[in-house]
Design goal:
Layout (H helix, E strand, L loop, with lengths): L7 H36 L1 H12 E6 L6 E2 L5 E13 L1 H11 L3 H13 L3 H9 L6 E7 L1 H14 L5 E10 L7 H4 L11 H5 L1 H5 L3 E6 L13 E3 L6 E4 L3 H17 L6 E7 L5 E6 L13 H8 L8 H15 L2 H4 L1 E2 L6 H11 L7 E4 L2 E4 L2 E4 L7 E5 H6 L3 H11 L1 H10 L26 H8 L6 E2 H12 L3 E3 L4 E5 L5 E4 L4 E4 L3 H16 L14 E9 L13 E9 L6 E8 L8 H4 L1 H14 L11 E2 L8 H10 L3 E5 L7 E3 L5 E2 L4 E5 L7 E3 L8 H11 L2 E6 L8 E5 L6 E3 L3 E7 L6
Parallel strand pairs: 2-8, 25-28, 30-33
Antiparallel strand pairs: 1-6, 2-3, 3-4, 3-5, 6-7, 8-18, 9-10, 9-23, 11-16, 12-15, 13-14, 17-20, 18-19, 21-22, 22-23, 24-27, 26-28, 29-32, 31-33
Helix pairs in contact: 4-5, 4-6, 10-22, 14-16, 14-17, 16-18
Length: 750
């Protein structure tokens, strides 16, 4: 039977089959739709809701205020500053041009280029070639530029085309002050160096944002899809740094760098010996954290002298290297051989262990043979025989120190070095603290013990050396140094507070006091650290000069030196310690007693009175009054009432000039010259006293009619040498003029 001839029942069967298949297919499709609908509405609802929000909304970040950094006296060292971003909407500019048939692109480009000091051509091209809502014209505009832009917008009716946005920038009001301690931030206000890095999470806070709806053209829509999450500002930190101490320290370090032609920077730290609070920390020459990617003048000179073509890969690589060197905090991240300042540890350890007594006597012939090596003393002729341990330390005698180290033995010596903290980091709250490089216990033979006893052939950080030596200054306790005293909120509430942390007692209080007394006698007497003397104050100090074995000359000899001085004040109420390390001085004399000690003295001479330490000076200086214009008789009467000596020059009845000037301070045995006749002033020529002994210079200048003032050693200056004078030799000046002489000892007991 032909296939086309089907019965009704067969046709019905085939039709039913087709209907069933269609229904099944439709059912499956309906299930697929229901599955996806359920997935969209319930299973993945949050995901797709977020996708929709992303398409119809935009957000505006609300930057959190970064915390302020204060010094110990609540002076601002780092804070946030509002700067302005200037931007335009090229899309709206083009719309306005179509509506008004006016060339807004040209007018805006011309106006903003004049105000902001940018290229007209560049700005015109940027606006013309884009069709977006936000084209940044200047990322950081000043307050003055911002005000001028607002005036320009109002004058030209450009409210829908040109815009301003307040932004936050980090600002360091004191410029380079304490730059290495503070560090700096990146473009995102994240701390990169120093305290900015160490306390980044404390200072940062948490950004907020404003979320709002937008249409396809980016315009804001008035819907319920808007959310405001306020920012949480960062906390403020109060440091232990004192701006006055910091400035004085930086000034002295810069004087060292200039006067002694230092190649590898000078660094110094000031610390409260009792608490570990760091009052000052500096390295020459500081960078400006407001512009951290700008090289300092010395680094720029090195880059210019490199011979590299600006913009070349070599030029960029060398500039990066110089920047990293400039940013590095030498007091924390670099190590050096401490030299004779380490003898403090050796002597304290030997006395504490009973390996030596202050009554022991020693001999020095200029060297000591140890392990087959002749190890020299800095004094080639030797210190003689029968001298005490105190004398040996004060005169920095290497053979005496090596002798007591031998008595102490390698094991006990190593254990004391460990106890003084040399094999651990200080824990100071700054990044990149360097570790000590020292001999392994099993490698300390007689020669290693001998050289280590006077601070050679191992390396420490400057902060480590200061902290370890200060255990002798504070009665034997090893403390943790720190720079942040407390964390506060915006209302001044204290959130955290730093207490003194004593790690352990390394030597007895009696031994610490004994060593401190020996060092003080070396300063006030004839010891090698007498250049650190401060008139009116008890100061203990030890100088040091070490060789650098990293760089050798063509004969394999070390020729670079590091001069340093560690000093601390002695007071019942605690004390303050300072260390200055001079890396590679190029002056003719490189000893720490010359390149560092006088500057320690000058610093402490300013710092100790400021910090409230009592001077033992009995003589009080007198402030000179203003007598110009007074009748001679009245001026004489006033001078007598003030117990000031005087001399009248001329026969007039009125004082027409005086020397010293009003406000100057003079000693009680000085006198004031009053001139009462025109042309009566006597003049004298300034003699050259450079290189003379201080006593001879004093006599010459006093007899010539000068008032004399000393810097550096200010008392007991017998044997000291004049190294600079404030008045130029040969100059003609009035009689009784003040001349300041800087004097130091040149006997090099290092």
């Amino acid at each position: 039977m032909p296939k086309s001839l089907l019965s009704n029942s067969e046709i019905l069967f085939i039709t039913r089959g087709r209907i069933i298949k269609i229904c099944v297919a439709f059912g499956l499709f309906l299930c697929f739709l229901l599955y996806n609908l359920l997935s969209l509405q319930f299973v993945n609802y949050a995901y797709y809701q977020e996708k929709v929000y992303d398409q119809i909304t935009t957000s505006s970040a609300m930057k959190a205020k970064r915390g302020t950094i204060y010094d110990a006296n609540m002076n601002v060292l780092a804070t946030d500053k509002t700067v302005w971003r200037i931007f335009v909407s090229s899309r709206d500019i083009k719309k306005a041009e179509k509506l008004d048939e006016k060339n807004y692109t040209e007018a805006i480009s011309l106006g903003l280029s004049e105000i902001l000091g940018i290229s007209y051509e560049e700005l015109f091209k940027k606006i013309s070639n884009s069709n977006v809502l936000d084209v940044t014209v200047k990322k950081v505009a000043s307050e003055e530029e911002y005000e001028k832009v607002l005036e320009f917008i109002e004058k030209e009716s450009l409210e829908g085309c040109v815009f301003t946005e307040a932004q936050t920038s980090r600002y360091y009001p004191e410029g380079t002050l304490a730059a290495h301690a503070l560090g700096f931030v990146g473009s995102d206000l994240q701390g990169l160096y120093g305290l900015e890095y160490s306390y980044n999470s404390t200072l940062s806070g948490k950004d907020g944002y404003y979320l709002y709806a937008k249409d396809a053209n980016g315009n804001t829509l008035p819907t319920e899809y808007s959310t405001y999450i306020p920012p949480t500002d960062g906390c403020d930190i109060v440091t232990t740094l004192d701006s006055y101490i910091q400035k004085e320290l930086e000034g002295q370090l810069e004087s060292v760098r200039i006067n002694h032609g230092v190649n590898n920077r000078v660094t110094g730290i000031v610390m409260d010996t009792k608490t570990g609070a760091v009052l000052g920390m500096a390295t020459t020459s500081p960078f400006d954290p407001n512009s951290p990617y700008t090289l300092d003048s010395l680094s720029e000179a090195k880059l210019s002298a490199s011979g590299y073509v600006a913009g070349s890969d070599e030029y960029k690589a060398y500039k990066k290297e110089l920047l990293e060197q400039m940013w590095a905090n030498k007091a924390i991240s670099e190590t050096y051989e401490p030299g004779s300042t380490f003898k403090i540890v050796t002597v304290a350890a030997a006395l504490d262990a009973g390996a030596a007594k202050t009554t022991d006597t020693f001999s020095c012939h200029g060297y000591l043979t140890v392990g087959g090596w002749r190890i020299k003393c800095h004094k080639v002729k030797g210190h003689g025989s029968g001298f005490s341990l105190s004398y040996g330390l004060q005169m920095s005698c290497n053979p005496a120190i090596m002798t007591i180290a031998e008595r102490l033995g390698a094991e006990r010596f190593y254990n004391y070095v460990k106890a003084f903290g040399y094999f651990e980091k200080t824990g100071i709250d700054l990044p990149s603290e360097a570790s000590t490089i020292f001999h392994k216990p099993e490698n300390i033979g007689t020669t290693e013990l001998a050289t280590a006893s006077f601070g050679q052939r191992f390396k420490v950080s400057v902060i480590r050396q200061l902290t370890s030596l200060s255990a002798v200054a504070n009665g034997g306790n090893l403390v943790t140094p720190y720079l942040v005293k407390k964390v506060i909120d915006s209302e001044g509430n204290i959130l955290s507070y730093r207490d003194t942390e004593i790690k352990r007692q390394v030597v007895s209080e009696k031994i610490a006091d004994t060593v401190a007394s020996i060092l003080e006698e070396g300063v006030s007497g004839e010891g090698g650290a007498k250049n650190a003397r401060v008139d009116g104050y008890k100061v203990a100090a030890k100088t040091g000069t070490s060789q650098k074995f990293d760089v050798l000359d063509e004969n394999g000899n070390s020729y670079l030196r590091i001069g340093s001085t560690y000093a601390f004040s002695i007071s019942e109420d605690g004390g303050v310690a300072v260390i200055i390390v001079v890396d590679e001085p190029t002056s003719s004399v490189k000893y720490g007693s010359v390149v560092a000690a006088p500057y320690v003295s000058a610093f402490l001479g300013k710092a100790l009175p400021y910090l409230g330490y009592h001077s033992q000076n009995t003589s009080e200086y007198v402030t000179v009054g203003n007598y110009v214009g007074m009748k001679t008789a009245a001026a004489i009467k006033k001078l007598k009432e003030d117990n000031i000596k005087y001399e009248i020059i001329g026969d007039g009845d009125t004082v027409i000039s005086q020397t010293p000037a009003a406000g100057d301070k003079i000693s009680p045995d000085s006198k004031v010259l009053l001139y009462t006749t025109e042309g009566g002033i006597r003049y004298i020529e300034v003699p050259d006293v450079l290189g003379m002994e201080a006593s001879a210079a004093n006599e010459m200048l006093t007899n010539a009619g000068f008032r004399l003032q000393f810097s550096g050693i200010t008392s007991n200056y017998g044997g000291a040498t004049v190294v600079s004078q404030s008045l130029t030799p040969g100059a003609v000046v009035p009689t009784n003029s003040l001349i300041t002489l800087e004097i130091i000892y040149m006997d090099f007991e290092d």
